[in-house]
Amino acid sequence: MRIAVVGVGGVGGYFGARLAQGGHDVAFLARGANLDALRRDGLRLESPKGDVELSVTATDDATSVGPVDAVLVAVKTWQLSDAFDVIRPMLGPETAVLPLLNGVEAPGALAAALGAGHTLGGLCRIVAQLDGPGRIKHIGVEPFVCFGELDNAPTDRVETLREAFGRAPGLDVGVTADVVAAMWQKFLFIAPTSGVGAAAHVPFGVMRETRQTRDLIERAMRETLQVGKASGVNLSDELIPAALDLLDAAPAGGTTSMQRDIEQGRPSELDAQTGAVVRIGERLGIATPVNDVLYRVLLPREQRARGALEF
Q: Is the pLDDT of residue 147 over 90?
């Protein structure tokens, strides 16, 4: 397959590298120092699943890539609108656009900008980060990707893409009958742990072992579940203990990407995670008091990172 990766951070770098290892023609869309390093030194991946160094095709000019079979979108959620113009020159009639972003709103935004016929729903699980230009470090969690058509219809392009991931080493490919529900299931975990972790400045191990923060996470999860149900998504109450099991299995020293961005003074996905729970809840008349407090507490730091506030 011809595959383009837009956003070469921890997620895009890891899955793009594994697809290239699997024999696929992968183009990495990057910029700045990251692009320079990819062109000069290739992509270097450090992972418990196996290290790899690859010579890769890297560019900031999507027109030079041309139409591809699939586009993996792995930018931060707040960068998504900037990615639309990058993606357009790589769209053919059957090109699948697969968002691997945190949150639940990216497929809708992509469908509105690029056409519903191109857009898949998708999610991944991995703890990985950019460890310097052209360097990806996989810290923990078994790499997993799952995707499907937004109407859950079986299609040849989804099956072809699933086979492509299946031939790639160092990852697991999931099959789901309801990709939107699967995205909300991940959201149920990532938004509360990101919000509490950033507000408390502690990693997973401390969050889960401290009774008060664990309780706060569970309450935020329950609010998120109710918002999802009110949105018409088929979600079970059993997802709460399952999400807490994921927290218990996470690396003790690990943190979410949103937490790391906030702590390091960078723009984060606060609006797409904690903010989305509050925003969707308000629209549907669902109270989200824990998420609301987390959002309000973290918002000044987010505004400072974006240059809207000084302190």
A: yes
- Domains of the chain plus CATH, in order, are 2-176 (3.40.50.720), 181-305 (1.10.1040.10)
CB count, 10 Å around CB of 278?
23
Average pLDDT, the chain: 95
Range 172-175 contact pairs with CB under 8 angstroms and sequence separation of 24 or more = 172/142, 172/143, 172/144, 172/145, 173/144, 173/145, 173/146, 174/144, 174/145, 174/146, 175/146
